[in-house]
Amino acid sequence: DAGVTQSPTHLIKTRGQQVTLRCSPKSGHDTVSWYQQALGQGPQFIFQYYEEEERQRGNFPDRFSGHQFPNYSSELNVNALLLGDSALYLCASSSGLTNHNEQFFGPGTRLTVL
Amino acid sequence: AQKITQTQPGMFVQEKEAVTLDCTYDTSDQSYGLFWYKQPSSGEMIFLIYQGSYDEQNATEGRYSLNFQKARKSANLVISASQLGDSAMYFCAMRVVPGGTSYGKLTFGQGTILTVHP
Predict the structure, then answer these.
(1) With an 8 Å Cβ cutoff, are A100 and B108 in contact?
(2) E strands present in B1-118
(3) Cβ–Cβ of B107/A45 closer than 8 Å?
(4) Which pLDDT score, from 0 to 100, does residue A102 have?
(5) Which residue among A21, B53, B63, B86 is the one 20 to 30 A from A54 at the CA level?
(6) pLDDT-derived band of residue A101, with 50, 70 and 90 as boundaries?
(7) For residue B46, what is the nearest residue in chain A, using CA coordinates?
(8) CA dihedral (A83, A108, B91, B88) positive or negative
(9) B4/A contact by beta carbon, under 8 A
(10) Beta-carbon separation of B102 and A98 below 8 A
């Protein structure tokens, strides 16, 4: 049973560029959340998708956008990249039917903005 | 708003000894869950243990136990019989469950780096 997968593993971009990160949830999960983790910090919630809609959003600018596909996979898009966007981006999946449980995290995409 | 505080930036423990990692939280919600995650240098967040706000018993998962003191709003992680492979960053997190549904975001603390010495 495959867990949460993310691609790419590493990415290097320059300021002003746009980037798309991808996530496939664990089998049986229908909810995907994205987190940004700056070096030495705890992850910060970006947004969550369920049934192809953004259900909850953290304190991130509109440059951060996302999408969820019918197969529950998800993309995170960041426009007009800034140096401060350099971070580990984590995707987590969960089931909308369960009432507690952990969110299963993927290995992350490490984004470097030069 | 929810807040998680981990006051120990780093902790050291001798192999085979027990260690406690501190976590305090702040929320006005009555229904919430508390989580501990382990993050090795590879970056992946590994779920360790969960405690619901209405659970009367402290959660245990193998060598991990959660010392839940609701009145003090603390949820400390206890690792027994430490192993060299336990060296990693540890995060405490909380999820408020709005309206009884399952989709609350996780709010993380700043983390504690644990180093296990042989």
Answers:
(1) no
(2) 3-5, 10-14, 19-21, 24-26, 32-39, 46-52, 60-61, 64-69, 74-79, 88-96, 106-108, 112-117
(3) yes
(4) 67
(5) B53
(6) low
(7) A105
(8) negative
(9) yes
(10) yes
